[in-house]
């Protein structure tokens, strides 16, 4: 089984979006460089961010998101983002009407069932869990091995929290990666067991 990583861009005060679900400048680092991060030509980062991020992205087999993120992105039009093979959507609702049943999206009720499905699909590749409510639930359930944050120099003051509804203390190891890119600080922590 591959590693389970909670991941997202975050403000220095711990938010992944404002109160209206807008990320503001959190993704500016993904377009402020000169090295293409993917084949779209839209994502361009510094060489330092490319070396760190591309190596991580290449290991992802499945991303787990909540239904809220799925709805906000319109399901990425049925194509998983960043070249990922599958997306597992944690939801209590059925797939949207008219949704292409061949699209590599899997709608699962509950975080434990979502993790089981994601690990089955990912094999020995990484299972990525989007930061926010679902990520926080996965961390609280002891299902996350590593936390990766792309910390952006902005203060939101309020909004959607990186760790979502986590209401108990969870210890992380010391960071084993601290990498400064342009307008972003990449951090990686193992979850203490």
Automatic annotation (TrEMBL):
<protein>
    <submittedName>
        <fullName>Dihydrofolate reductase</fullName>
    </submittedName>
</protein>
<dbReference type="InterPro" id="IPR024072">
    <property type="entry name" value="DHFR-like_dom_sf"/>
</dbReference>
<dbReference type="InterPro" id="IPR002734">
    <property type="entry name" value="RibDG_C"/>
</dbReference>
<dbReference type="GO" id="GO:0009231">
    <property type="term" value="P:riboflavin biosynthetic process"/>
</dbReference>
<dbReference type="GO" id="GO:0008703">
    <property type="term" value="F:5-amino-6-(5-phosphoribosylamino)uracil reductase activity"/>
</dbReference>
<dbReference type="Pfam" id="PF01872">
    <property type="entry name" value="RibD_C"/>
</dbReference>
<feature type="domain" description="Bacterial bifunctional deaminase-reductase C-terminal">
    <location>
        <begin position="111"/>
        <end position="170"/>
    </location>
</feature>
């Amino acid at each position: 089984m591959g590693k389970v990583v909670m991941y997202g861009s975050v403000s220095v005060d711990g938010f992944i979006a404002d109160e209206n679900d807008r990320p503001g400048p959190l993704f500016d680092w993904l377009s402020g460089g000169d090295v293409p991060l993917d084949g779209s030509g839209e994502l361009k980062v510094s060489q330092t961010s490319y070396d760190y991020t591309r190596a991580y992205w290449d290991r992802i087999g499945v991303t787990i998101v909540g239904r809220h993120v799925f709805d906000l992105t319109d399901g990425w039009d049925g194509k998983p983002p960043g070249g990922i093979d599958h997306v597992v959507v944690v939801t209590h609702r059925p797939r949207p009407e008219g949704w292409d049943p061949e699209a590599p999206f899997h709608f699962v009720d509950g975080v434990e069932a979502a993790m089981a499905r994601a690990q089955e699909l990912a094999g020995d590749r990484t299972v990525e869990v989007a930061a926010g409510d679902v990520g926080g639930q996965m961390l609280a359930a002891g299902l996350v091995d590593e936390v990766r944050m792309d910390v952006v120099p902005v203060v939101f003051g309020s909004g959607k929290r990186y760790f979502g509804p986590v209401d108990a203390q969870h210890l992380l190891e010391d960071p084993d990666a601290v990498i400064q890119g342009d307008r972003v600080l990449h951090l990686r922590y193992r979850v203490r067991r």
